[in-house]
Amino acid sequence: MHKMEWKPEYETGEPKIDAQHRKIIELLNQLGSSWGDSSSDASLSDILADMTAYAHEHLSYEERVMAECSYPEFESHIAEHRNYVKNTAKLCMEAVRRTNQAPDHIYNFLVQWWDHHIREVDQKYKPYLK
């Protein structure tokens, strides 16, 4: 699987958010590397758990920042976060149940979602950051 690379268009200008986005990309790359590896299911589960926990931490922080700067699209942005959490939980359950192609499907979903979210959706609050 291809590695997700940091892109200049991911920069929000908020150092903590940018550092969190970089960490998410790092975790995604660990996840992608583990699919083809002969490592145990426990290792894969650990990476998925780390990714899920860190994403929750990041999304919560991002929501606090948007609330503090009175971001006008706050509610729709939060709805995207909730949809992500719901879809990720569903995909992780597919992986646990060993549904056909679940690992590739999860990785592709996560990479596409985070790329779009950071590059497009998060950039909309950039002018409102204090």
The largest sheet, given as strand count, sense and whether it forms a barrel, is: none
The structural class is mainly alpha
> Could you name the ranges where pLDDT drops below 50 across 5 or more consecutive residues?
none
Give the termini distance in whole angstroms: 38 Å
Strand content: under 5%
What is the percent of helical residues?
Answer: over 70%
- The geometry reads as globular
Order of helices and strands: HHHH
The overall pLDDT, averaged over residues, is: 87
Q: What does the radius of gyration come to?
A: 15 Å
The total beta strand count reads 0
Instruction: Give the count of helical stretches.
Output: 4
Write structural notes for this entry.
The mean pLDDT is 87. This protein is mostly helical and 130 residues long. Helix content is 71%, strand content 0%. It is built from 4 helices and no strands.
List the helices and strands and how they pair.
Blueprint: H1 15-35, H2 41-68, H3 74-96, H4 102-121
